[in-house]
Amino acid sequence: MHASVLARITILAYADKVTNIEEIVRQLEEYKRALDSAIDALQRREGAPKPASAVSAGRQRQIEAMRSYWAQKKATAGNKRATTRSGVAGITPAGRKRLSESMRKRWAAKRAGFV
Fold first, then answer.
1. What value does the mean pLDDT take over residues 60-88?
2. Largest CB tally within 10 Å, which of 9, 19, 77, 85?
3. How many helices (H) and strands (E) does the chain have?
4. Sign of CA dihedral 24, 26, 31, 35
5. pLDDT at 44 over 60
6. pLDDT given at position 15
7. Residue 72 contacts by C-beta under 8 Å, 6 or more apart in sequence?
8. Residue 112, SS3?
9. Residues 6+ apart with CB under 8 A from 74
10. pTM above 0.70?
């Protein structure tokens, strides 16, 4: 029934000479009532599946386990000492001097090749 109603509505709505707007509105309201009653019938039937927002018991256990895992992680993370090396150089003065000399030699060789 709904396909024929929809076909009639489509034909009437897109015809060149649409003069009977009240008839189109009546047919649309009839179609809407048919859809509403079909939706109500589907929602009332027994054994209908749960809505998608419902969480299964197994998934709920998994969620709770992850919450407790991260709570323990955060609790033990606060006990650790910070191991940041702020203000401490990562290279000795002698190592810096050797690195500086090697870079000077490298750039000198590069300049000599291109100049």
1. 79
2. 9
3. 4, 0
4. positive
5. yes
6. 56
7. none
8. helix
9. none
10. no
